[in-house]
Design goal:
There is one protein chain. By secondary structure, the protein is mainly alpha-helical. Helix content is about 80%, strand content about 0%. It contains three helices and no strands. The longest helix is centred in the N-terminal third of the chain and has 43 residues. The N and C termini lie far apart (about 75 Å). The mean pLDDT is about 70.
Amino acid sequence: MQITRGNYSNQHAREIIGEEMEKISKITSRSALAATYLEEHKSRGTDEIPENLSEKMYDAIFSFKEKYAMFHSDADNLSQLLISVKIS
């Protein structure tokens, strides 16, 4: 009986280790693909930044600050602090 239990435990442990190794290999291959993608774009010297990104970001920040101040005007001067934040 002891041997059977030990064999079952070993088999179960092998299955768990196999599953975890498979997960790790998937993560490793994904990170390798991401690294390859980044290296390719670095070597080409191209950026995929859309035009007017800074302007769009500033507009979004300003809109957020306005809406936050409008809906949370009673929030311990946090809304006043947010509205006074300057982005440069």
